Amino acid sequence: MRRVAVLGSGVVGETLADGFLKHGDAVTRGSRDPAKLAGWQAKAGANAATATFAGAAKAAEIVVLAVKGEAAEQAVDLAGRDALAGKVVIDTTNPIASAPPVNGVLRFFTTLDESLMERLQKRAPGARFVKAFSCVGAARMVDPQLPGGPPTMFICGNDDAAKQSVAEILRTFGWDVEDLGAAEAARAIEPLCILWCIPGFRRNSWTHALKLLR
Ligand SMILES: NC(=O)c1ccc[n+]([C@@H]2O[C@H](COP(=O)([O-])OP(=O)(O)OC[C@H]3O[C@@H](n4cnc5c(N)ncnc54)[C@H](OP(=O)(O)O)[C@@H]3O)[C@@H](O)[C@H]2O)c1
Which H/E stretch holds residue 64? Predict the structure, then answer.
C-alpha cells in the first residue's frame, strides 16, 4: 500500500483522494485547516487521514498538488521543499487568473514562455514534478467511462522514473498516457485546460475528455 498525500481541500483533492483509496492506497489529505476535512475522513474509511500540507507531505511517498493555481507556489512552500525532495509530485494545477473568461476563454497569469509547473519545479528543485490530471474536469479524473474509449492524459516532467510511476497510476485510473517530455511541455499542457473549459462555458458541457488519435 502506497502512502499518498493529496494537498487540496477542493473537488480535485477529494476526487483524487477517493480514487487512490479506491485503488488500494493510503491517503492523507492536506489543508491549511485540516479540521475542515473531518467529514471527508469520516466517510473515506480507515486508510484515510488528514493533516497540514507539511504533515501530509512529510509522511508520503507520492504527493498530489491540487490547490488553486494562484496559491500553488505558497502551497509548495507550506509543504516544504525538504519534505518534497526526492518525491514524485503530481501537479494538477492550472494557472487560472482571477479575471473572468472572455467568450468562454479563461485567462492565465503565466505566459507561453514559462508554465506554472516550471515555477514550482524551480521553487522545490529536489521534487520530481509530473504534470497530470490538469486537462480534464474532476468528474472524469478517475475511471472515465466514455463511448470513445479511454481518453488521453498528457503528462510531462524532468524525471523519467517519476513519469513512469505517474503513467502507471494513470493507466490504473483508466487513462491512455501521452508523455510530452520535459517540464517545458507544461507550457502546452496547462493551456489545454483553457480548451477543455470552452464547451463548458459556452454550452454548459463539462463531461468530455481529450483523446490523441493516430
Ligand atoms: N476543478 C476541476 O475540475 C479541475 C480540473 C483540472 C485541474 N484543476 C486544477 O486543480 C487545482 C485544484 O482545483 P479545485 O477546484 O479542487 O480547488 P481550488 O478551489 O482551485 O483550490 C482549493 C485549494 O487551494 C488551496 N489554497 C487556496 N488559497 C491558498 C493559499 N493562499 N495558500 C495555500 N493554499 C491555498 C486551499 O487550501 P485550504 O485547504 O488550506 O483552504 C485548497 O486546498 C486548481 O489548480 C485547478 O485549476 C481543477
Answer: strand 62-65
* Ligand 1 proximity of 138 Cβ (cutoff 6 Å): yes
Protein residue with its CA nearest to atom 47 in ligand 1 = 94
The residues, any chain, with a CB within 8 Å of residue 213's CB and separated by 6 or more, are: none
Atom index in ligand 1 nearest the CA of residue 14 equals 16
Q: Dihedral sign for Cα 24, 25, 28, 30, please.
A: negative
In angstroms, rounded to a whole number, what is the distance separating the alpha carbons of residues 80 and 84?
6
pLDDT tier, 214 (very low <50, low <70, confident <90, very high otherwise) = very high
Whether the CA torsion 12, 15, 20, 21 is positive or negative: it is positive
Q: How long is the chain?
A: 214
Q: For ligand 1, is residue 137 a contact (CB within 6 Å)?
A: yes
* pLDDT tens, position by position, 45-66: 999 999 999 999 998 999 999 9
173-212 pLDDT, tens digit each: 999 999 999 999 999 999 999 999 999 999 999 999 999 9
**Residue 33, number of CB atoms within 10 A of its CB:** 9
Question: 8: phi > 0 → left, psi -120 to 50 → alpha, else beta; which?
Answer: left
pTM of the full predicted structure? 0.98
